[in-house]
Amino acid sequence: MAQKRTTPKQQVALTKLFVLDTNVLMHDPSSLLRFEEHDIYLPMMTLEELDNNKKGMTEVARNARQASRFLDQIVSDPQANMEQGITLAPHSGGAATGRLFIQTYAINSELPAALPSYKGDNQILGVMLHLQREFAKRQVILVSKDINMRIKARALGFSAEDYFNDKVLEDTDLLYSGTRQLTDDFWDKHGKGMESWQENTRTFYRIKGPLCRELLINEFVYQEGAQPLYAQVREQVGNGAVLETIKDFTHAKNNIWGITARNREQNFALNLLMNPDIDFVTLLGQAGTGKTLLTLAAGLTQVLEDKRYNEIIMTRVTVPVGEDIGFLPGTEEEKMTPWMGALEDNLDVLNKTDDSAGEWGRAATQDLIRSRIKIKSLNFMRGRTFLNKFLIIDEAQNLTPKQMKTLITRAGPGTKVICLGNIAQIDTPYLTEGSSGLTYVVDRFKGWLHSGHVTLMRGERSRLADHAAEVL
Predict the structure, then answer these.
(1) How far apart are CA 267 and CA 281, in angstroms?
(2) Among 145, 153, 195, 322, who pairs with 160 as Cys (CB 3.0-4.6 Å)?
C-alpha cells in the first residue's frame, strides 16, 4: 500500500467527517449520498469486509455488490482527485455536496491491549483514533448499524451514531393510523353551508372547516354517540372535503364469506378490501386482530363469487423465530407450506362458516378454495408481473423498503396488493419499527387516491390471546 497520505483538509471545521462501517453500506448501498454537506471516510477494512460479503444471493450480498459498483463508478470518474477527496455532488444530483475520502496509506494506532488488532472492527476503531488526532478541530463520527461497535467506540471516547437515513419515523406512535375520531363540536364548526346527496345507497357530505386541511384521501372518520357517523374522506381540497358514508360490514346481511366485522376498525378494513377502486391496502395490528382472516375472506369472495380477480397469491418472508430446521423437501409450494400455518388456520375457520353445506359440500369447497390460492416464495419474485391477482404479503414488517418496492412493482393491471403485519414483531436483523418496509409504505402511500390503511386496535382471537398480548 502506498505511503502517501490522503487526508481531509483541516480548514473544513464546520462540516463533520463520518467514518462508515461496512454494515451501513450493506444496509443501504446509496448511503454515501445521504450525508448532505458532510465528508465521508472509508477505511480500507470497510472495503475488505465489503469484498468478503459480496458472494451469494442474499439481500446483504446483493447490497454489497451494489455498493462496490457504486464506489467503482465514483472512483473511476476522470475528475476524481484521490488526494483532495472525491466530490459527491455530480453523483447525487447536488443532494450530497461533501467529499469521499478512502484510506490509501497504512495507519498504525495504538488501541488498548484488550482489543486485538486482527479484528476488522478494531482496525476501523484504530482509523478513528488516527483521524481524531489528525483533525482535533473537526468532529469525527463513526456510523454503524452494529450496536456493540458503537458501544466500543463510545467507550474509547469516540462519537458514534446509528444510520438513521432510512428511518421513516423517529417515533412509531406518529405513524398514520388511517382513522380519525371527530370531536363533539365537529358539526358546529364544519356544518355551515354543508351540502349532502345520495348515490348508490351511500350518503355524501361536502363540508368546510379548519379540520379539512388535515384530512387525507381514504382516511376513515367516525363519531360515536346517539347519531354515530362512520365515513371515508373522498375528496380534500384546501379548506373543504367530501365525506362518504361506508358500508356496514358488522351486519350479518353484509357478511363476507360468512365473516362479519366485530369492531369499528375491522369494518373500515373490509371497506378497503372490498373496494375495487383501492389497489393497495395496508393493515397493521397485533396478533389476533383479524388481519389475515378478513383479507382471505375478502379475497375468496372477490375471486370465487364476484370473479373480480383470477386467484389469490400469498407470500411472506421466511425468517424463522427459533433455530432453522434446515432444507425443506418438495416443490416451491411444498417448501413454503410450513411457513403458511396462518393460511391453513384461517382457511379452517372460513370453511366452517357454511353450516348448510354438509361434510361433502365443505370438502368440495375446500378443494375449490385451494385450487385458487397459490403460495409463492419471495425469492423468485423479481421480473414477474401479476395480472388480475389478489396479492397478499403476510408478515410484511420483516421486509426492507427495497424489498417492499420490488414486490409492489410486480402488480400489473387489475391486481390488488394487501400488506399485513405487526411492526412490534420484527425478526429481520438491523430492521427496526422505524425502518421497516411496512412503516415505509404506510407513510409513503397515505393520501393516495387508490390506497388505504387501517391500524386494527382490538384483538378478537380469544380472551387468552388478548390478555397475553397485554401482560407478556
Answers:
(1) 14
(2) 153
Cell 390460492 belongs to which residue? 373
Number of H helices, E strands in the chain: 15, 18
> Which of 380, 381, 354 is closest to 368 using CA atoms?
354
What CATH fold (topology level) applies to the domain 17-161?
Rossmann fold (3.40.50)
- The CATH fold assigned to 256-471 is Rossmann fold (3.40.50)
Query: In sequence order, what E strands does 343-459 have?
Result: 373-375, 389-394, 416-421, 451-456
Position 154: which residue type?
R
pLDDT at 10: 45
Is residue 266 a contact partner of residue 294, using CB atoms and an 8 Å limit? yes
Length of the chain, in residues: 472
Work out the number of other CB atoms within 10 angstroms of the CB of residue 378.
Answer: 18
| Neighbouring C-beta atoms of residue 104, cutoff 10 Å | 15
The number of CA neighbours under 13 Å toward the Cβ of 147 is 4
Residue-level pLDDT at 466: 76
Closest CA to 112 of 47, 157, 162: 157
Q: How far, in Å, are 122, 179, 285, 384 from residue 132 at the CA level?
A: 15, 50, 46, 50
pLDDT bracket for residue 398 (50, 70, 90): confident
Sketch the domain layout of the chain as residue ranges: 17-161, 174-245, 256-471
Topology alike, domains 17-161 and 256-471 = yes
